[in-house]
Amino acid sequence: MSTKVPPEGNQRQAEPSSTKTDILQYLLKEGRANARELANALEISPQAIRRHLKDLEDEALIQHQLVQSGMGRPQHVYELTSRGRDRFPHNYDGFAVSLLDTLADTVGPDQVGWLLRKQWERKAQHYRQQLGNASLPERLRRLVELRRQEGFMAEYYPLDSDNEEESNHYMVTEYNCAISSVAASFPSVCKHELDMFAQVLPDCTVERTHWQIDGEHRCGYSIQPRQSDEN
Fold it and tell me: How far apart are CA 31 and CA 80, in angstroms?
């Protein structure tokens, strides 16, 4: 039995973009789905659903991963990006900023700064536990995936080699900020974020190269392994 997502009201025929909205709503509710699951749920052809999925990916509202299932070919499994989630009403940032403003008025800005620093130290500890002692490229892959799960549109790539396993210089880039409203009101959070990356990768030199608060369209971090003291 299908789990069709009902359209809003009875506007399916009148609104040419309603299928895309249905896809976003389905992914919001279910988390992830492949093209066949979406086609069955929305009761449209696989060819039509793939056209809509391409359009949504082009708009950066969804993203896909290749997932191996059984002995067949890997499948494209789709999920919302943070931009896609932003299509649905929420006021998480507003609540967070209001809470921090209240704390600043109650205990003072210095205490709020201390709390933010402790939060990032806790986040760094969590990331390090997740990354383990793998090679640097593998740790960067895992770190980027964790950031994506938290709403950041993140990627990494080598800067000095086509082979990421042989590189000695990497860039981690985040094209959106999941805490932009907090950062605008409390800019120190960005310094704590930079410190957090340095704690997560203690064998590397981490430098910020791009910063959205400065008007750039992304935040970027240069990451280079430290040279061993041993000769």
Answer: 8
Tally of structural domains, the chain:
2
Same domain (yes/no): 138, 39: no
209, two tokens:
């190269």
pLDDT in tens, 27-37: 988 889 999 99
In this prediction the pTM is 0.54
Phi, psi of 137 (to 5 degrees): -60, -40
- Residue 24 lies in domain: 18-85
Give phi and psi for 174, each to the nearest 5: -125, 120
Cβ neighbours, 10 Å, residue 78:
23
Distance, CA of 214 to CA of 208 (rounded, Å): 12
